[in-house]
Amino acid sequence: MWVRGILFFSGLLLMTLGIALTIEADLGTSPFDAVLVGLADSAGMTVGIWEIILAGLFILVNSLLTRTAPELAGLLTAFATGLFLDGWLFLLAGMELESIISRAGLFLCAQILLAAGTALYLHTKFAPIPIDRLKLVLIDKLHSSVAVTKTFLYAVCLVSAFLLAGPIGPGTVLTVLLGGFLLQYAFIVLQRLGIMPIYESSTS
């Protein structure tokens, strides 16, 4: 349990560092993160707080769709994610990158950290982030494939981010196209390092 806890929080730390660096690179973030930044810029409060607020909303939606009690453990994961994200953004505040090459390099490093952190976090099988749980619920309720469901959620987030003037850019497209590949590669690397057993790759 202690090992799982260390891997869980280490994964969240790496994942949120990747998100924060993606935001600082200013080339576009993932559709969902673009929504968070757009809400923070237009409605106030921090990106991390909006992460927690939307997580609470998703938990209620998941509860209504599945007709089960709210999975409050997911809110704890979202709370930790929001706290870490705000912490990284505070530490990285004031970072200035003028060169497009340096920004692109930072963006790529961020994606690697994001994939590694997500792989570690998923490996522990603790409470998932509510939006990840929503994806699974929609797949079950709509009898749709993972690809169709992910595309639908991406589309909703992209439209929302556009309306909120969130950071949409070429990095957003790369995040969508490369996210799954990098996550799968992160699982393979972690397996070879002995951090997770081979059967865990199925969680991706």
From TrEMBL:
Bilayer-crossing regions: 46-65, 72-94, 100-122, 142-165, 171-190
Record-linked Pfam families: DUF6198 (PF19700)
Keyword set, alphabetical order: Membrane, Transmembrane, Transmembrane helix
Keyword Membrane: yes
InterPro entries, per database record: YczE/YyaS-like
The keyword Transcription regulation is assigned to this record: no
Superkingdom: Bacteria
Protein name in the entry: YitT family protein
The species this protein was found in: Terribacillus saccharophilus
